[in-house]
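Troubleshooting log. The previous run stalled partway through. Resubmitting the same two chains, unchanged.
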Amino acid sequence: MFGIEGTGDVSGFGGLVRPHPEVVGTPKPYGSYFDEITDALEDAYPGFADALEKVVVDRDELTLHIVPEKIAEVAQIMRDDEGLRFELCSSVSGVDYLNTDARRLHVVYQLTSMTYRRKVRLEVAVPLGGNVPTVTHVYPTADWQEREAYDMFGMIFVGHPNLTRVLMPDDWEGHPQLKDYPLGGVPVEYKGAEIPPPDQRRVYQ
Amino acid sequence: MTSSGYATERETTEGRVFTVTGGDWDTVTGSIDPLSNEKIVVNMGPQHPSTHGVLRLVLELEGETVTEARAVVGYLHTGIEKNLEYRNWTQGTTFVTRADYLAPLFNEAGYVLGVEKLLGITDQITERAQTIRVLFMELNRISSHLVWLATAGMEIGAISMMLYGFREREYILDIFEETTGLRMNHAYFRPGGVAQDIPDSAIKKIRDFLVYMPKKLKEYEDLLSGQIIWQQRTQGVAVLDVTGCLALGVTGPVLRSAGLAWDLRKTMPYCGYENYEFDVPTATTADVWGRYQVRMAEMRESLKIVEQALDRLKPGPIFVADKKIAWPAQLAVGVDGLGNSLEHVAKIMGQSMESLIHHFKLVTEGFRVPPGQVYIGIEHPRGELGVHVVSDGGTHPYRVHMRDPSFVNLQSIPAMAEGALIADVIAGGASLDPVMGGCDR
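Second attempt completed without errors. Output:
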């Protein structure tokens, strides 16, 4: 616990070197129902070629990497097109790919089609503090989930009706889920006494 | 400017604002003209007996009618997702289980299914482990619904329901304790299987429970369904139709009470749910009454699944055969609680140096998970629990996000409450069954 430097990782495995594999696109055909989804989207959306960065099929899940500026348009088509019908936006979450991707913040949208019983994942990548158009006008359920992603990672959802913190206190500084935000990076206060964060504690060496 | 010790007043662009924290209402309102100055902002929670946990509601009232409602969450944020990233994959179950503390086994199930999918061992999970998971999830669903019935009953005014609901829940918690060692926060489902086999004594308890519970469910319905106060507090209250539910992402009993039979156990089966016979109960009223009916029926369906799972339970291994993943422990209940059985410790220590090293590496460092990301959706008592698991190839999760149904469902509070009476905010909020531990994580 004492003498920790850097991230304040107290697990004892801070010295492990993690591999940073690159995400590669999958060539056609994608298999399963995935071809039908991409074909339907291509037919319904004129700007398909410009909006799609790559398609990844991994572990029976389809991920469409979308150009950030186009995500709201794509979401609209995904919801409304007869052949797609992704009525439910199950989840919106962020991932910080520090040191792996120059556009380190990814926003991941999990869409569910109740009509066809299908799932698809949309993913966009932006740099730190980057802008992503909101999808709240397409999926109102994304409201709090985008607020959570902003709260934890700090990407800006442009056009969001009320982009404020939702889980952390309003006056919090920093975005705690970022990979370079240390665990236990703030002093712990308990009944008036204060315990400093691990990286600022006295060191016995 | 202070008119009394309790109420301060100040002028704003919207008129004169009084801040009231206590005291006698007549003294506070004595100097106000009730016809033109009736708007009241009530800050309900986060410490309030009927907000179902540390939920804060900011309500704007005209008389008793709610004109605007805003839910404020985050008071129970404990950084579970961040902490996970600093522990190995197996230790992750001890974190996720603490999120939604009324449905711990579902959190674990969503997480371990995600890890197993990343590892590519979904097909290798043994029949017995699979059946135990289904059995325990359904018992947990009943216990969660019982707490819902108990707390919703209390919030609407049926105090005795609270006592009965918690009493029967204890029975299920006893079964859990007998098997996992803990009443809550079990960390029982592990990537690759379950931590411990079910003892025969617990099986007998579950059999007894299957006889005992239907009578109790009947008793609850006798107590509540015909009760005129219960009917008037629930029927036509907090209506949210299918369109509203889908737009706001509301799933689970609330969606089914609006008439859409969307249950992930049926529509996108996992853990072998396609092999069990059960119905998906629905209602068409889309109100609190409908949600009550759906949850009561769901408890009966869960009992059916528990019975089928018990019949399927054949002796066999409870962990995957792969020694690089299977947790190298054989737990036993000792005088100081659940721990490694002494015979097993003797075996590891005495067998060979290699087995000791293997044991040590697997327990302290953990196994590596190939890089990638998966999303698992399972049917939680409150709706779709989604777990997004990302691995970078290391021994720790790179990122785990839990799409908790309480968090998403709470967004529908304004849609349910605005335009209704303040008493119905309580009934509507209770009918969502939010658990703030899951909501705030």
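Takeaways: Chain A has four helices and nine strands. The first strand of chain A starts at residue 52 and ends at 58.
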